[in-house]
Amino acid sequence: MAQMTMIQAITDALRVELKNDENVLVYGEDVGQNGGVFRATEGLQDEFGEDRVFDTPLAESGIAGISIGLATQGFRPVPEIQFFGFVYEAMDAINGQMARLRYRSGNTVSMPVTIRSPFGGGGVHTPELHADSLEGLIAQQPGMKVVIPSGPYDAKGLLIQSIRDNDPVVFLEHMKLYRSFREEVPEDDYTIELGKANVVREGKDVTLVAYGAMVHSALKAAEDLEKDDIDAEVIDLRTVMPVDFETIIKSVEKTNRMVMIQEAQRQAGIASYVVSNVQERAILHLEAPILTVAAPDTVYAFTQAEEVWLPNYNDIIEKVNKVMHF
C-alpha cells in the first residue's frame, strides 16, 4: 500500500493499463511531455513512448472522433478532454456515435473508449466553462457509462475497470479532490466493479446519496447530525450511470428517509432520475418526500459568487432536518 492523492492514483491506473495492454493509448491536449494541466499523465510519455502517450491538436471534436476509429481497430483509447465544459464540441461523437455503435453494428463492434476529464468547483475558482457539472448530458444517453470517483482508492480501481470495459465510459474527476487528501492505495492491479455503489457510512435514520466531491460534504453533514442524535447513512454512487438502485433501495427500506445530493444544478445532473426511480420502487417505505440538495438552476456562477452558489454541508443538514420532522 502507498499513500496517494487522487491524481497520483489516476496516473498509477493509467500506468498499470499501459503496461497491461499494448492497445491502450493515452492522448489529449498537452498530455505528453507536459503531463496534462493537472499532471495526471506526468512521466507516462517518457515511460511508454510517443506512440502510446501523445498530444493532440486543440480540437475536442477531433479527439473524440479519432477515438471511435481507434476503437474499431482493436485499440483501447483513453482520451482526455482537458476540462469537461469543453465536451460540447465532442457531443456528436460521444452521444451520437460511440453510444450507438454496438447496437448499430448488431453487437459486432465494441467501443472500449474511456474519456477522462476534470470538472467541478468549490474553491477551485476556474474560468467559465471549466467547472460545470455536465454528467447529466452523458448519463441521459443510453449506451454510455459515467463514473465519478470520490477518492484515490476508488479512482484507481474504477479507472482500470473502465479502461477494460468494452463499452464507452466517461470518467469524471472532480478538481477539488485531486490533491485535497491521501488514501492508502494498492500499488498493484485491482478493479472496482462499475455500477456498484458504496455505503461509506452506515446509519439508521436517513439515507444520504451523493457522488464525487459531495460525498465528503455528506459525510461532514452526517458527523454534525450525529450531535443531534440523527444517524445518517451515506452512499457514494461511484457510477452515476448505471445507478445501483439495489443498494439505495436496501438503505431506504432501513432508514425510511432520503436526501439526494449533487453539485450540479437541480435541473441537471442525475438527481431527478435517482429520486423518481426510488419513489417508484420504494414509496411505501418512505415516511417523508425525498428532498434534493443541488445548485440553483442558473449557469455556473462566476468565481466571486461560487461559494454562495454551490451546495454545501449546511444545505444537506437543512434538508435532513426537514425530512426528519416532516
UniProtKB/TrEMBL annotation:
Protein name per its UniProtKB record: Pyruvate dehydrogenase E1 component beta subunit
UniProt KW Oxidoreductase keyword: yes
Task: Keyword check for Zinc, yes or no.
Answer: no
Where do transmembrane segments lie in this chain?
Answer: none
Keywords assigned by UniProt, alphabetized: Oxidoreductase, Pyruvate, Thiamine pyrophosphate
Species of origin reads: Gracilibacillus boraciitolerans JCM 21714
Q: Which residues form the Transketolase-like pyrimidine-binding domain?
A: 4-180
Q: Which InterPro entries match?
A: THDP-binding (IPR029061), Transketo_C/PFOR_II (IPR009014), Transketolase-like_Pyr-bd (IPR005475), Transketolase_C (IPR033248)
State the superkingdom. Answer: Bacteria
Cofactor names: thiamine diphosphate
Q: Name one Pfam family in it.
A: Transket_pyr
One GO MF term: oxidoreductase activity
